[in-house]
Amino acid sequence: MKKFLNFAYILIAAGVLFACDGRRRVQIASPDGRTVISFATGDGLPVYSVDKDGGTVINPSQLGFSLSVGDLTAPFRIKKVTRASVDETWDQPWGEEVTVRNRFNEARIELQEVFGKKRLFRIVFRAFDEGIGFRYEFPEQPNLGAFEITDERTEFALAEDHPAWSIPAYRGEYYESLYEKSPVSRLDTVCVPLTMETASGKFIAIHEANLTDYAAMNLYPVDGSTVLRTDLTPWSNGIKVYAKTPFVSPWRTVTLADDLNGLVNSRIMLNLNEPCRIDDLSWIRPGKYVGIWWAIHQDRFTWSQGPRHGATTQNMKRYIDFAASHHLQGVLAEGWNKGWDGDWVSNGSDFRFSEACPDFDTEALSRYAATKGIALIGHHETGGATLNYESQLEEAFAFCSRLGIHSVKTGYVNALLDKKERHSSQYGVRHYRKVIETAARYHVMIDNHEPVMPTGLQRTYPNLMTQEGVRGQEYDAWSTDGGNPPEHTTIVPFTRGLAGPMDFTFGTFNFKNPVHPQTRVQSTIAKQLALYVVIYSPLQMASDVPESYENHPAFEFIEIVPVDWAQTIVLQGAIGDYVATARKDKHSEAWFLGAITDENARDLKLSLSVLDRDRKYVARIFRDDAQANWKTNPAAVVIEDMPVDAATVLDLSLAPGGGAALRIQPGE
Questions:
Q1: Phi/psi of residue 547, each to 5°?
Q2: Domain 2-271 - what CATH class?
Q3: How far apart are CA 198 and CA 287, in angstroms?
Q4: What is the 3-state secondary structure (H, E, C) of 358-411?
Q5: 473 with 504: CB under 8 angstroms?
């Protein structure tokens, strides 16, 4: 409250502070009392600040908009304040835990312009134990109908110049950049989530939730300061958002975590999305799959038709047989449909989504897969030609539904959608939502590549299973910079991973690509296994070709690791260095543990106190051999069993670029 000492006030039970001059200030405390949001209209300008445990996290920060019909910034008066408290739980059909607690205190603050048209808008603040969320609401009113947002002026005036991990908003494509660490004051315009570590070893993450009919939020430091200002991804004409009252913005979220476990387990984003709108969820099934993807990246197969065409009936049957023999649930067919011949990135309008190539018998393969208990996964690459895709959406998903294809990987490989609009613009947001909603009506799950950054929509539409939006393992097959460095996977769980499930496509055992010898997978086999636990997705790929897995003892872990969890705990970690994560299987009493490191060897001591105290367990351990090294000896893996219990402190030695993966299940 020291920030507003220029106002005299008294505290009332409703949480509203009245100034002597008739102006109000509002405070909202989290249910545990540790976090406090303060709001005021000092000099008529709406500002907020955030404190936690008595210390300042966010200094007074500006709120407001620039509109095509005149700015909404100042002066304002607080016309009305209402508050509410919620404490409820809801269950996820799939996720990193089953039951989510939604507990917050809320203040809904209605503001009115003092002069001019006296337009209204509201700011809704919610204080959670793990952070805050707020959004803007524009009620229907005589003096504000249709309008354009030319700028959102939301700020996050950080109290310190924290180190932050970020990727650039406009200098990369599809969020597929390597994360860099720098002080907040030296950031570029960056994407969210933006993760920061404080001097005291705590964590702050700024993101957004429920991105609906709006532009994605980016952030930039104002004049080299620690004040981060919102930058909305624009349309090609410069407008940020087209709107019409009544209208609401996405939620702006700030997670405040005491440690990495609290950061990963924050559910603010999910809780700020709408409840599930799908009544029958029986067709939504997490699982693991294989496909010809890695072989295509190695130029063994092609997407296009010809002598090396990968998606043939014969080849797909081989993959279906392999999946059925190894406890996998699906097979992805890329390049099965017409449109891949020639420059498909430039000619995305040639794609047809219910017309197969002559050597791909969709109906026969669907029947064959069904006899084996395997799900055939479709592939809808658009080349960014969204208008062409939308013109075929109903037909395409009806085609899938008729053939029993309940999962589709979509793709948008083009710098611009329809050669004009950015993926994270309001245009892109509208398109992706249309695809997800249409797919839901036809009982089709979506794995979306080249997406807008996820913001928790999977709560409302759990058929949105997973998305890319990350520099994944495909870069280890062909990138000119050599591939993803070992530290990359120790960063993304705490940055991109905060936005939701990511389809990283790991599981490669054959690390070299003779077609692109400058590039390779920069990990050991044991680390590839551990990533199934460390990086979350309800759909996980075994990325390599069947020949790399057949008769390989380490493939056992990919066969047995689940993709749906009852509980998630980050045991230890340091962003950019290492991470050890434990997850409990949703459908058994088994726990799985994954530990990975960067380019440095590392010895870990991990307590297994997460286990039940009155039970004995057996751990099956897949770890780096003593001579393993991602550069010189990546395939050296040891598989061993040992008895463990809740008192066990596990000693794990991780090789450079290495890891360890464990299944811990109740024993005698």
A1: -60, -30
A2: mainly beta
A3: 37
A4: CCCCHHHHHHHHHHCCCEEEEEEECCCCHHHHHHHHHHHHHHHHHCCCCEEEEE
A5: yes
Backbone phi and psi for residue 108, each to the nearest 5 degrees, phi listed first: -105, 110
- Judge contact between 157 and 255, C-beta under 8 A: no
Residue owning tokens 């209209």: 41
Largest CA distance in the chain: 82
Whether this prediction's pTM lies above 0.90 is answered by yes
Domain parsing of the chain, residue ranges: 2-271, 275-464, 470-668
Nearest CA to 638 out of 526, 508, 556 is that of 526
The pLDDT value given to residue 38: 98
Q: What CATH fold (topology level) applies to the domain 470-668?
A: TIM Barrel (3.20.20)
> Rounded to an integer, what distance in angstroms lies between the CA atom of residue 54 and that of residue 282?
47
Just list the catalytic residues. Answer: 474
**CA dihedral sign of residues 336, 337, 341, 345:** negative
Superfamily of segment(s) 275-464: Aldolase class I (3.20.20.70)
Q: Which tokens is 136 given?
A: 């803007």
Neighbours of 403 (CB within 10 A): 18
d(CA 146, CA 138): 11
Q: Which two tokens stand for residue 376?
A: 């055939």
Q: Is the Cβ–Cβ distance between 106 and 126 less than 8 Å?
A: yes
pLDDT, averaged across the chain: 94
The answer to whether 275-464 and 470-668 have equal CATH topology is: yes
Mean pLDDT by 10 residues, the chain (668 residues): 29 29 77 98 90 98 91 84 98 98 98 91 97 98 95 97 98 96 98 98 98 98 98 98 98 98 98 98 98 91 96 97 97 97 96 98 97 97 98 98 97 98 98 98 98 98 98 93 95 98 96 85 97 98 96 98 98 98 98 98 98 97 97 97 98 98 93
Cα–Cα distance, 14 to 559 (Å, whole number): 55
How far is the first Cα of the chain from the last one, in angstroms, to the nearest whole number?
A: 58
> Residue written as tokens 């180190």?
163
pLDDT in tens, 594-653: 999 999 999 999 999 999 999 999 999 999 999 999 999 999 999 999 999 999 999 999
Per DSSP, what are the bridge partners of residue 72? 65
Tell me the helix, strand and coil percentages in the chain, rounded to 5. 20, 40, 45
